[in-house]
């Protein structure tokens, strides 16, 4: 390869597609959509958000996420309450059942990830996870070079 490496996106994209595909049967088994899991995951880390802030955080259009929130609320996985300071806004919080479902899905997903990560020597695996955590925490502006 002439001392050159492949672009990060060229290396990450196929891995991401395969990991997402591996998650689909797990999500189906637990009765969740990918967006439903993304919402529960975001709420598990920050249990109360406005719908607008949640949509922005997960990179979803706030009008398109309503159906996902409705489904999760109907399944008792999250609850929405009106913001007393702004009646147009709603707070979204994960329920105990939502947290249980999220944790079960995450455990099943990570069981497969552990199998994949086992392909790396232990030191490389630890370095990969640390590096991935550091890079994924970068603000978009740093990646875009703004």
What does this 3D model show about the protein?
By secondary structure, this protein is an alpha+beta fold. Helices cover 64% and strands 12% of the residues. It has a 3-stranded antiparallel sheet with strand order 1-3-2. The longest helix has 22 residues. The model has no long low-confidence stretch (mean pLDDT 92).
- What overall form do the CA principal axes indicate? globular
Instruction: Give me the CATH fold name.
Output: Arc Repressor Mutant, subunit A
- How many discrete domains? 1
Mean pLDDT: 92
Largest sheet: 3 strands, antiparallel
Output the helix-strand order.
HHEHHEEHHH
Helix tally?
7
Estimated helix fraction = 55-70%
Structural class by helix and strand composition: alpha+beta
InterPro entries: HTH_MarR-typ, MarR/SlyA-like, WH-like_DNA-bd_sf, WH_DNA-bd_sf
Pfam families: MarR_2
Protein name: Winged helix DNA-binding protein
Domain HTH marR-type: 5-137
Summarize the structure.
This protein is α+β, with helices and mostly antiparallel strands and 146 residues long. The chain contains 7 helices and 3 strands; from the N terminus they run H-H-E-H-H-E-E-H-H-H. It has one domain: Arc Repressor Mutant, subunit A, CATH 1.10.10.
């Amino acid at each position: 390869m002439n001392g050159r490496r492949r672009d990060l996106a060229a290396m990450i994209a196929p891995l991401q597609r395969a990991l997402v595909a591996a998650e689909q049967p797990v999500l189906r088994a637990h009765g969740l959509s990918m967006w439903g899991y993304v919402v529960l995951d975001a709420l598990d880390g920050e249990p109360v958000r406005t719908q607008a802030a949640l949509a922005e955080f997960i990179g979803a259009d706030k009008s398109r996420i309503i159906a996902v929130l409705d489904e999760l609320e109907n399944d008792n996985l999250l609850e929405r309450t009106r913001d007393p300071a702004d009646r147009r806004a709603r707070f979204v919080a994960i329920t105990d059942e939502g947290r249980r479902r999220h944790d079960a899905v995450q455990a099943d997903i990570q069981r497969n990830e552990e199998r994949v990560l086992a392909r790396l020597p232990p030191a490389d695996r630890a370095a990969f996870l640390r590096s991935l955590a550091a890079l994924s925490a970068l603000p978009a502006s740093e990646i875009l070079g703004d």
